[in-house]
Amino acid sequence: MPLLVRDSELSRRETVSANNEGIANSFTSRKTKTVSETAACNDVPVLRRAAMDYLARREHSFYELMQKLKKKFPNTEAELLREVADALRAQNLQSDERFAESFVRYRISRGFAYLHIKADLSARQVSETLIDKYLAPDEAHWQQAADQLVVKKLGDSEQMSFGSKQHLKISRFLQSRGFLPLQIRRALEKHLD
Q1: SS3 of residue 46 by DSSP
Q2: Which pLDDT tens digit goes with each residue over 54-70?
Q3: Alpha-carbon distance 41 to 47, whole Å?
Q4: Helices (DSSP H) in 75-164: which residue ranges?
């Protein structure tokens, strides 16, 4: 009798093992199917849907959208991808202007300043006229933002000496955030001994 138990136990183990292999194989085939589907596509509705999926998540610059489509469909002709993106732009579903406006608003809310935001927009190939429309270097809110960041970084110690380790650290931090040298100097002057 114990032999039968062992046989049934072995057959149960084999069944479980086979089921696990089947699951693993179906997962592997699903994964390779996705890769092969995205390798090359000349179907405009599929390309349009992929582009719309990107745009549904957030605004994208034209350049960003093209880069993402090229990455997702590497074997698709660049002209076909461009036609799809141009059609979305013509229907006002993709707009560099909307992208620039929302990007500037978001980056300002995260504590970044003029130089950093301008470099980010330029890297995304947004035109200089759009950058200048939504971003100005001499706005008063940049100075207020720099002042707030200095107060936040100083914490309990309200004053510091010029050239101290803390002074240099905060200065570098403000530079990395994209503040202009004059804005950094003004923000730090208020807290010097």
Answers
A1: helix
A2: 999 999 999 999 999 99
A3: 7
A4: 78-90, 96-109, 114-123, 128-134, 140-154
Cβ 99 vs Cβ 164: under 8 Å: no
Question: Can you give the pTM of this predicted structure?
Answer: 0.73
Residues 6+ apart with CB under 8 A from 188: 150, 167, 170, 171, 174
DSSP 55-74: HHHS---HHHHHHHHHHHST
Q: Which of 21, 20, 78 is nearest to 47 (CA)?
A: 78
**Which of 120, 56, 126 minimizes the C-alpha distance to 88?**
56
> How many CB atoms neighbour CB 182 within 10 A?
13
DSSP label at residue 138: T
Contact, 174 vs 149, CB < 8 A?
Answer: yes
Dist CA 118 CA 137 (whole Å): 10
- Distance, in Å, from the CA atom of 161 to the CA atom of 154, rounded to the nearest integer, reads 12
Question: Which residues lie closer than 8 Å to 150 by C-beta, 6 or more apart?
Answer: 170, 174, 187, 188, 190, 191
Confidence of residue 9 (pLDDT cuts 50, 70, 90): low
At residue 192, the 3 state secondary structure works out as strand
H or E element: which one contains 191? none
Residue-wise over 36-45: b if at least 16 C-beta within 10 A, else e?
A: eebeebeeee
| CA pair distance 180, 140, nearest whole angstrom | 12
